[in-house]
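WARN no homologs supplied; continuing
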Amino acid sequence: MPPPNERRRAQLADAAIDLLVESGIHGVTHRAVDRRAGLPAGTASNYFRSREALLVATARRIVEQHQADMAEASRPDAAAVPGKGDSVELAIDLISGSLMLAAGPHRARYLAVFELRLESLRHPALAAVIDELTAEMAAFTGGYHAELGLRIPPAAIPPMLVMYAGALFALVTGPAEAVTPAAVRPLAAAIVRGGIAAAQA
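OK structure emitted
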């Protein structure tokens, strides 16, 4: 058997992400993915024998993309935040920027994540991949805060991630034009201050 074509797998997963956004979870079938990717019928089923395998591969593709973004964010020049000083204000700046990126240029990706999260309630293998993404976000957030010298209690991170997910859901499922710095910054402030308050409770 020839080795798997990773580029083709990524192409199929990207097509599935597009379908999740356009048609929802029920629009993701092997045949629809082939058509969306512009590939011969049967290509997706050759790579992913079941629909669950296709959805898991799609979730893993999103994890790969998220990992690439985290690696970019942690580069030394990317980590240089102007006006270092107040940890709370810096954290608010970082989360504002993250929400703007996720609900703006990466809007489709996170719409797909929410579709997959709901479907994962019925598919343990898919749930495991989504949980992996959540765990990586928590680990990266804690490490990134430490790298920047932010005095955010580690216990604040789990509630912050829950509130971040809620804010992101509201932003990506609402009007795209509503995603503005003026709308996003108060959400970021509530996430940071709420997480710190929860850690101190």
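The CA atoms of residues 112 and 200 lie 34 Å apart.
OK
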